Amino acid sequence: MTKKIKNLKEFSLSNDRYEGANLMCPGCSHNIIVREVLNATNDPVIVATATGCLEVCTAVYPKTSWDVSWIHIGFENAAVAIATAQAAYEVLKRKGRLPEATKKMIEEGREPKFVAFAGDGGTYDIGFQSLSGAFERGHNFMYVCLDNEVYANTGGQRSSSTPIGASTTTSPAGTVSYGEKMMKKSMVEIMSDHGAPYVAQVSPSKWKDLVKKVQKGFEVNGPVYINAQSACTTEWKHAPEDTIEVSDLGVESCVWPLYEIINERDEHGIIYNTKLNITYRPKNKIPVEEYLAAQPRFKHLFKPENRHIIELWQKAVDAKWEHLQRREEAGV
Amino acid sequence: MAKKYELNEVEVWDGNMAAAQALRQAQVDVVAAYPITPSTPIVQNYSQFLADGYVDGDFIMVESEHSAMSGCVAASAAGARAATATSSQGFALMVEVLYQASGMRLPIVLTVVNRALAAPLNVNGDHSDMYLGRDAGWINLCSYNPQEAYDLTLMAFKIGEDLDVRLPVMVHQDGFLCSHTAQNVRPLQDEVATEFVGEYKPVNSMLDVSNPVTHGVQTEEDWHFEHKARQHNDLMNSKKVIKRVFEEFKDLTGREYDFVYKYKMDDADIAIFALGTTVESAQVAADKMREEGIKAGVVSLRVLRPFPFEEVQDAFSNIKAVAVMDRSAPGGTFGALFNEISAAMLAAGKSPIILNYIYGLGGRDTTIEHLVDIYRQLDECAKAGERKYPLQQFIGLRGPKLSFY
Ligand SMILES: Cc1ncc(C[n+]2csc(CCOP(=O)(O)OP(=O)(O)O)c2C)c(N)n1
Ligand code: SF4
Ligand SMILES: [Mg+2]
């Protein structure tokens, strides 16, 4: 059942499945994203979480922030965890062995949703194999990557999501280095190329867009990937109260374009159409420099010897934006 | 509903088929698995059962053993009966998740077809993988032939799922020597086996929407120790349940299992202690010695964890010399079984002379002659009343002899 949401006030009060007063840093986007995802549905939700900030801050025995069933196994296996929990659900349903309360929910038309949350480390890097396998097998679940472009939980080391020029604790800027040398990996496209019926990129600052995509994802059959921009006050080094503003700068500069890719499949699972929709188009695309300037992790790029990296950034963002628009126009 | 499999009173099965049949009869809800020699046929047999309608659970061919065990953990937390099989490198890849499975108190069953660990890469049997997982907090059962692999796999579910235990269980069998050697097996009929194992009663299922649960929490210095202590306590105390299940199985089948297996130990002066298929060879060697008037016996374990401390003490209480055989590279110390048995006998206050033999690595054949030689060394020590040979010797090794201390 798709939940109707009218406005932000109602949305923020709409349910209470996740306690936001937890050990996360004030201003952490992970918290905002999790609430937005869980609030997007009234159906029961089963959650798996990879090791990372979200896990260590929300389930420290004997407390838990989760009022939905939740499992954490390790850093690299959130995808297989949620996929197999969903598979177990199907088996027990078929065998008539689900708990009574769950059977009743299903009769009311409220099937549980299976959602994994993992950081970019748990997704782009160490958990990629498990994620790829679970998508290839086509289990029915949603995977949300909380992408703060760094291993935040362990003190800010680079990941393959860390963008070029960012100073991290393992790609620090120094007298002879401008920081991270690699471009960010294109996770959204990689996951779409698995043949997933629905993948999307979201930002917690554009909450209506996020909720709409999550709701779409809950409606399709098969694995869904959501790449969520997650500004990290500690590692991006902006003030906690600026989280949403920094997120907006990312969206308005097209550093973090909001779009979805839909693989339309027939009843045999054969993809007969792929379409990409840009779901938010900035009125005035602002320079990347403004986004970078808001985050001290890029501070050193403003030194004369590093300015070429800012130019490179702009070029890369423009090229990607152009590419997305062309794909959208071409309907591929 | 799964179809009933027509079984003869006596089937000719290798260890892999025996284990696969036990998994089928236990009506596992979710098997998540990945193939590796020599346990691959378990997964293949199971796939065929599924293809022919004999399984109504799910079988998920995942992309690695790490995911296989992770999948079992999640399925089990979701209230499903979960099991898998592996060997060697696959087992090594699972190790992180083995600890998570036991720490989360999930009664998963893992059939391990024992094989050497690389490098150098080797597909043959030894006990390196068994030793790698011995501290992972699982119950470990050991079989020597296909019949026992079948029996112990069925019992594993009943033991691990008991509400006083709630721990995962491994069932070991030797790669090739057991897994690929067809022998007579007397199976239970499907309905008898399924009833013996019983229906799985989950604890704290993630799928109960009326009672949300948090699985796999963080605990630091304030609670971690208590959790691990409780887990150890319940593993130690699982002996009661293991004993009860062994008895129930005996009542049903007439086949008898105990923590410690003993052969001609009542009047023995010397004994070989080993695990796996070597136990059967050692019995042949013991009989040979007895023809010469040397009172030789054999001791083995059915249950490696929880370690049957008192039963081991008891087995060796009147023995003069014991050879403890370890089939895993000891990596800079004595073999693990040697250490454990020595500790048990030290605590008993009266210890036989104990020698450590490293043998059979990477599938190297251990012959009756090797075992007879060991008995002769033991006999010499027993008669002299003192140790006459190095504490640790490698047997069956080519080139110069290797020994320490
Ligand atoms: C197998 C394994 N390797 C390394 C770690 C250490 N570790 C825990 S969390 C983490 C980084 C998490 O980064 P990410 O997934 O991006 O999540 P974030 O904390 O940034 O939200 C690392 C390296 C681990 N727990 N397990
Ligand atoms: S370090 Fe970053 S991701 Fe982690 S809790 Fe703090 S703000 Fe959130
Ligand atoms: Mg991160």
Characterization of this structure:
- The complex is a heterodimer of chains A (332) and B (405).
- Chain A has 332 residues and is of the alpha/beta class.
- Chain A has one domain: 3-Layer(aba) Sandwich (Rossmann fold).
- Chain A has twelve helices and ten strands.
- In chain A, the strands form two sheets. In chain A, strands 2-1-3-4-8-7-9-10 form an eight-stranded mixed β-sheet, with helices on both faces. Chain A has a two-stranded antiparallel sheet with strand order 5-6.
- The longest helix of chain A is centred in the last third of the chain and has 24 residues.
- Chain A is globular, with a radius of gyration of 20 Å.
- In chain A, 52% of the residues are buried.
- The model of chain A has no long low-confidence stretch (mean pLDDT 96).
- With 405 residues, chain B is α/β, with parallel strands linked by helices.
- Chain B has two domains: 243 residues, 3-Layer(aba) Sandwich (Rossmann fold), CATH 3.40.50.970; 143 residues, Rossmann fold (3-Layer(aba) Sandwich), CATH 3.40.50.
- Chain B has twelve helices and 17 strands.
- Chain B has a seven-stranded mixed β-sheet with strand order 3-2-4-5-7-6-13. In chain B, strands 10-12-11-14-15-16-17 form a seven-stranded mixed β-sheet, with helices on both faces. Chain B has a two-stranded antiparallel ribbon with strand order 1-8.
- In chain B, helix 1 crosses helix 2, helix 6 packs across helix 8 and helix 9 packs across helix 12.
- The longest helix of chain B has 30 residues.
- Chain B is globular and about 70 Å long.
- Chain B starts with 10 loop residues before the first strand and ends with a strand.
- The chains are: A alpha/beta (332), B alpha/beta (405).
- At the A-B interface, strand 2, helix 4, helix 5 and helix 7 of A face strand 3, helix 3, helix 4 and strand 9 of B.
- The complex binds thiamine diphosphate, iron/sulfur cluster and magnesium ion.
- The site of thiamine diphosphate has 18 residues of chain A, from helix 3 and helix 6.
